[in-house]
Amino acid sequence: MTGSLDNGLKLWKWVDDRLELIGPLEGHRLGVISLDIDSSGKMAVSSSLDSQILIWDLENRRLLKTYEGDPADTWTVALSPDSRFIATGSHAGCVNMIGVDSGNKESVIQLDGKFVYSLAYSPDGTKLAAGAINGIVSICDLQTGTIRPLDGHAMPVRSLAFSPDGRLLASTSDDKQIKVFDVFGVLGTALVERS
Q1: What digits encode the pLDDT tens for the residues 158-189?
Q2: What's in the keyword line of the UniProt record (predicted)?
Q3: Secondary structure of 105-136 in the HEC alphabet?
């Protein structure tokens, strides 16, 4: 699945060593700025400059739900591994947790960083990583509510990804650095830094 600033979403399939276009998904009125796919590959969530968050059934290529949001609260989205929650990054430096079934804001996680640019759930769904415009990377323990800031970047954090076992977190930034953190380490410093 890909999204673009021409308000298009496209669904793709890997066939014979190449990507094959399955078709477009129509629903956003303005450019798509974030998307996430659940672990089964059957459901996806997308956000757009139109302030909408859309939930998709990928198997049947149809729109399931539409949530209207605030323009600055739908910049980035992440779908929880159990597909129960959508985390959205906000300009106010917080993460909004929206219930997929209810469409309601269930909780808000306030972070030390500014505008949240990137989000990633750990594979087991117990942690949520957030990257901010001011370079701060935070790990939120969703079971205890603790928030751990990491030694982040000098510029906006654009992408985050957990390792399959959830022990490592990789981050990329406009500072042209890639950092890898030990999620359970005592120090919040990077294990690896590369530019």
Answers
A1: 999 999 999 999 999 999 999 999 888 755 56
A2: Repeat, WD repeat
A3: EEEEEECCCCCEEEEEECCCCCEEEEEECCCC
Question: Which residues touch 162 (CB under 8 Å, ≥6 apart)?
Answer: 120, 121, 122, 123, 127, 129, 168, 169, 170, 183
Minimal CA–CA distance to 137: which of 122, 123, 119?
119
Q: Can you give the pTM of this predicted structure?
A: 0.89
- What is the set of domains in the chain, with CATH numbers? 2-194 (2.130.10.10)
Pairing state between β 178-182 and 52-57: unpaired
Cα–Cα distances (Å) from 61 to 10, 24, 44, 97, in that order, read: 10, 8, 10, 25
What distance in Å separates the CA atoms of residue 20 and residue 114, rounded to the nearest whole number?
39
Q: Ramachandran region of residue 187, left (φ > 0), alpha (ψ -120 to 50) or beta?
A: beta
Of residues 71 and 32, the one with the higher pLDDT is 32
Assigned token pair, 66: 């539409």
Buried residues in 42-68 as b, exposed as e (16+ CB within 10 A): ebbbbbbbbbbbbbbebeeeeeeeebe
Pairing of strands 52-57, 62-68: antiparallel
Per residue in 19-32, pLDDT tens? Answer: 999 999 998 989 89
Q: Which two tokens stand for residue 94?
A: 């917080």
